[in-house]
Design a protein that fits this description.
CATH class of the largest domain: Alpha Beta
Strand order of the largest sheet: 1-2-6-3-5-4
Structural class: alpha+beta
Helix content: 40-55%
CATH topology of the largest domain: Cytochrome Bc1 Complex, Chain A, domain 1
Strand content: 15-25%
Number of helices: 17
Number of strands: 11
Distance between the termini: 32 Å
Largest sheet: 6 strands, mixed
CATH superfamily of the largest domain: Metalloenzyme, LuxS/M16 peptidase-like
Shape: globular
CATH architecture of the largest domain: 2-Layer Sandwich
Order of helices and strands: HHEEEHHEEHHHHHEHEEHHEEHHHHHE
């Protein structure tokens, strides 16, 4: 699991394939893993069903590892790593991979930065060589840094500052996890990126982009002996780096709820957003939390849709999702207010749904449905080399148990109706939380005093 696991009803369920039939299609993911002398952890998964291969390098650094006065560094490096190295000219990485029929990309979260290549099997050596170049031979110079400053600032403007409701999860995190390393989002502050110097970027690279702070996964059609030789040659040349500092999350209980109203001319429909603390990805309650969110808001037969959209008609869209990190978790709640209705009425109706599930629990029919959803998703998530490689890296990184790729499904199946009700009671019903109204119109954000609700 990771922080951004937004679950959707799998097509297998939609077309009526039974849970038993889906289970019969699944075969365990086989893999080999070992560690180089410099600390790089390597996982190999052979799959010759198609002549393609994927590489993933999972760096154990995310926005939570940043200096609060220098946020956005992890995300900045997601971009900078595509610039140039001592042996690869600027703007050539994309070209080299695209010319052989492959693709490449990366993403950053609170806990990780992940880079991947998908290539024809006969071009796997190229992907490994490029990744090894980026690991310790990245050029951090003025032209690359200034180019990516502009790219990152434009991304922030488009996705956050100039987007409807774009700032909500930044504001939500700042209050929900105040004074902790999870209080800012990976996009970071444009001002911090603007004022950072090249030596600061170099220091961040040297601290976190080391072989002993990374996991390399190769999945697909390859000769294992040959791949091991390439990995030894390309990655084994580097010295073990200094151990990165330990993360201190220090998340204390919320003492009171928080409210804020934001008026924004970009907004077409008023909306209500709420954030509740949740379990971390490492806790067993994470499985019950995901299943609770499915019951409440996965599809038009879910509780929130039926009640708020279909029956009461006070919302045009509403839902809840878990965001699970290594040392923190939240339930994100949203509701778009229908014409003629008010955010206050929608907020009360959402909270009433949470109170109801905490008081009454869930039905056996709902539990059976959500188990089928999870089983279908479990099978579907093993359908590509990239998804398998990403999961192998995460299970090793966060659980120190790579074989969870085959075993985690049992944790979902062991969740009971009582577990789901208990999680609703513990995290949603009557708990301190953050509430934000986003309303049409001009004006600065209005921040009423916190309340206990």
């Amino acid at each position: 699991m990771n922080w951004l696991r937004f679950k959707a009803l799998c097509a297998l369920v939609a077309i009526g394939i039974s849970s038993i039939a889906v289970a019969q299609e699944y075969k365990d993911i086989e893999f080999e893993e070992y560690e180089l002398d410099n600390g790089l952890h390597v996982i190999l998964h052979h799959d010759d069903s198609a002549p393609v291969a994927t590489t993933i390098v999972h760096y154990h650094v995310g926005s939570r590892d940043e200096d609060p006065a220098r946020t956005g560094f992890a995300h900045f490096f997601e971009h900078l790593m595509f610039e140039e190295t001592t042996q690869i000219e600027r703007a050539n990485m994309d070209k080299m991979i695209q010319e052989v029929g492959g693709n490449l990309n990366a993403y950053t979260s609170l806990d990780e930065t992940v880079y991947f290549f998908n290539v024809p099997a006969n071009e796997l050596q190229l992907a490994l060589w490029i990744e090894s170049q980026r690991m310790r031979q990245l050029k951090i110079n003025e032209i690359g840094v200034e180019t990516q400053r502009g790219v990152v600032k434009e991304e922030r403007r488009m996705r956050y500052d100039n987007s409807q409701y774009g700032t909500v999860w930044e504001k939500m995190s700042a209050e929900l996890f105040k004074n902790t390393c999870y209080s800012w989002r990976p996009i970071g502050s444009a001002q911090h990126i603007d004022s950072a110097s090249i030596p600061e970027f170099q220091a961040f690279y040297d601290k976190y982009y080391q072989p002993n702070n990374a996991t390399l996964v190769v999945a697909g059609d390859f000769d294992e002996d040959q791949v091991r030789d390439w990995i030894d040659s390309y990655f084994g040349q580097y010295e073990r780096g200094p151990e990165p500092p330990e993360v201190v999350a220090d998340i204390q209980p919320m003492k009171e709820s928080y409210r804020e109203t934001v008026r924004d001319p970009k907004i077409q429909l008023d909306a209500v957003f709420m954030g509740f603390r949740g379990p971390t990805m490492l806790e067993d309650d994470a499985y019950a939390a995901e299943m609770l969110c499915d019951i409440l808001s996965n599809g038009e037969s879910s509780r929130m849709y039926r009640s708020l959209v279909d029956e009461q008609k006070i919302s045009v869209q509403a839902g809840i999702f878990p965001q699970l990190a290594q040392f923190a978790g939240l339930f994100g709640v949203y509701g778009i207010v229908a014409d003629g209705q008010t955010p206050e009425k929608l907020e009360k109706a959402i909270l009433a749904e949470f109170e109801r599930v905490a008081r009454e629990g869930v039905t056996e029919e709902e539990l059976a449905k959500v188990r089928n959803i999870n089983e279908a998703q479990f099978i579907g998530s093993k359908s590509s080399n990239q998804s398998k490689a990403g999961q192998l890296a995460q299970y090793h990184r966060y659980h120190d148990d790579t074989d969870m790729i085959n075993e985690e499904f049992e944790k979902y199946m062991s969740v009971s109706a009582e577990d789901i009700q208990r999680v609703a009671q513990e995290y949603l019903a009557g708990q301190n939380h953050v509430t934000m109204y986003y309303l049409k119109g001009d004006g600065d954000a209005n921040k009423p005093a916190s309340d206990d609700e």
